[in-house]
């Protein structure tokens, strides 16, 4: 339930794309940012800085979409989409299968929780190097290697479960290694997209990717993982390994080189520092990152203690465990819908207003329990909040991809995600302390107010500022 890449989601049917274009650009060749033959770009006229997308289409402020209505996403994208579906289905299976398998060897809550830590810790310690790696190497090859490594690690874990007397530590080691591979894969996957599709269709492409990620990771993967564990731990680990192999097979059909051109040889440390400087020096990126960090702080605080508000006869909502799970599903359903309609909302409202509306619509997600315990109203608020998060993700991620040079995109993505996710542990701690001393209602009210206050960031994230940032990249 984070605002950045919320969830990763049964695969919708692939829409029919009109691929009958003449002189279709080669999207598999990476060229320096701003060059005339960059996929989906035209040389920028001095008057506009936004090329023919403004001059020919007379697009309104913040609307790069008219050109996108005529451009198909293309076979390379749908191959990448297929690989994403397989990969995220494996993720969804594993996030349920690993703790259930661990329960066969320990009943310690601390040891069980340690698996989640082992999977997520690499994002805190490996995110920045993963971003630098994505800008140094071939991004498709990094994705291939990461998925191959994850499949091999699961097969090694199967062997350990069959031969080691106390395999709980093997679970930890494999979970951590898979987390490292996931960090490399996700960073490169998000950075490769502008090399696969023209930039005017990034919002549509991101919406389709978020939809399949969310569906696979949250709807199909978890129940499938639980069913596979019942059938046997070996099967529960072999299936996601096979899914990652299928993802590798799909990626092999994405032809071309996706290595970003480098003008000089620099150290990894210098590369990381350059990415951080770029993020910090751009008011738009800096503000968006701070807003995401603030919202993730609020959601982490609220949902850390929400179970106390919702579950059990002594709680405010008096839900059963299955009812609680059904309630949370409303967030995922809203997110799925939001990922599919985000491009249309962006076209109608523009980037800045779309982000502002998403913030307003997400406030009830954390604030509604402060005013009502009615399950229907809370469920509706969760649905609306999930939809808002998805719209925010599609619009903001697409914007970040548009205003960041390709040579820096991996590092900026990783630094941004570190900033976005780094506030979550602090939010969880704050939620617990506030609930302990001031009560649950205080937590939800305070986090709702904090979420609403994020609208102040929209004083920086304006349409003129977005257009200026796009012109800067065009001229880079």
From TrEMBL:
Boundaries of every Major facilitator superfamily (MFS) profile domain copy: 76-463
Primary location recorded for the protein, binned into one broad class: membrane
Cross-referenced Pfam families: MFS_3
Protein's membrane topology: Multi-pass membrane protein
Segments passing through the bilayer: 111-133, 153-178, 227-254, 287-311, 323-342, 354-371, 377-397, 418-437, 443-461
Record region (Disordered): 1-74
Swiss-Prot/TrEMBL keywords: Cell membrane, Membrane, Transmembrane, Transmembrane helix, Transport
SUPFAM superfamilies xrefs: MFS general substrate transporter (SSF103473)
InterPro entries from the UniProt entry: MFS_dom, MFS_trans_sf, TM_effector
Annotated GO MF terms: transmembrane transporter activity
Domain of life of the native organism: Bacteria
Gene Ontology, cellular component aspect: plasma membrane
Location in the cell: Cell membrane
Biased composition (Basic and acidic residues): 18-29
Protein name per UniProt: MFS transporter
Organism from which the protein derives: Arthrobacter crusticola
């Amino acid at each position: 339930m984070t605002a950045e890449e919320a969830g990763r989601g049964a695969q919708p049917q692939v829409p029919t794309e009109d691929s009958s274009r003449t002189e279709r650009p080669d999207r598999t060749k990476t060229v320096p940012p701003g060059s005339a033959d960059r996929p989906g770009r035209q040389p920028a006229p001095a008057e506009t800085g936004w090329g023919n997308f403004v001059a020919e289409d007379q697009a309104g402020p913040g609307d790069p979409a008219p050109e996108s209505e005529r451009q198909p996403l293309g076979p390379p994208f749908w191959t990448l989409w297929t690989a994403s579906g397989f990969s995220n289905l494996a993720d969804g299976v594993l996030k349920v299968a690993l703790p259930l398998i661990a329960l066969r060897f320990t009943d310690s809550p601390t040891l069980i929780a340690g698996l989640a830590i082992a999977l997520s810790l690499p994002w805190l310690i490996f995110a920045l190097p993963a971003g630098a790696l994505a800008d140094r190497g071939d991004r498709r090859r990094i994705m291939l290697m990461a998925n191959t490594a994850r499949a091999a690690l699961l097969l090694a874990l199967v062997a350990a479960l069959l031969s080691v007397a106390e395999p709980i530590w093997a679970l930890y080691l494999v979970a951590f290694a898979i987390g490292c591979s996931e960090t490399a894969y996700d960073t490169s996957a998000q950075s490769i997209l502008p090399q696969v599709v023209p930039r005017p269709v990034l919002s549509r492409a991101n919406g389709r990717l978020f939809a399949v990620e969310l569906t696979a990771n949250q709807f199909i993967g978890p129940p499938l993982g639980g069913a596979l564990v019942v059938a046997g731990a070996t099967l529960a680990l072999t299936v996601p390994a096979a899914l990652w192999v299928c993802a590798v097979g799909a990626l092999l059909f994405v032809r071309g080189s996706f290595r970003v051109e480098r003008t000089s040889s620099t150290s990894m440390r210098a590369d990381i520092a350059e990415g951080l400087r770029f993020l910090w020096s751009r008011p738009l990126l800096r503000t968006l990152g701070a807003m995401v960090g603030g919202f993730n702080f609020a959601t982490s605080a609220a949902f850390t203690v929400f179970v106390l508000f919702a579950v059990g006869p002594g709680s405010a909502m008096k839900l059963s465990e299955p009812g609680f799970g059904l309630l949370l599903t409303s967030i995922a359903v809203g997110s799925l819908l939001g990922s599919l309609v985000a491009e249309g909302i962006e076209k109608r409202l523009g980037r800045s207003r779309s982000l502002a509306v998403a913030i307003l619509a997400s406030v009830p997600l954390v604030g509604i329990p402060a005013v009502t315990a009615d399950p229907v109203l809370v469920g509706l608020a969760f649905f609306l909040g999930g939809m808002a998060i998805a719209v925010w993700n599609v619009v903001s991620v697409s914007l970040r991809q548009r205003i960041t040079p390709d040579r820096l995109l991996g590092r900026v993505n990783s630094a941004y995600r570190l900033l976005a996710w780094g506030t979550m542990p602090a939010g969880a701690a704050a939620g617990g302390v506030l609930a302990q001393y001031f009560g649950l209602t205080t937590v939800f009210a305070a986090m709702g107010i904090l979420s609403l206050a994020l609208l102040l960031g929209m004083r920086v994230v304006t349409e003129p500022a977005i257009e200026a940032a796009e012109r800067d990249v065009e001229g880079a």
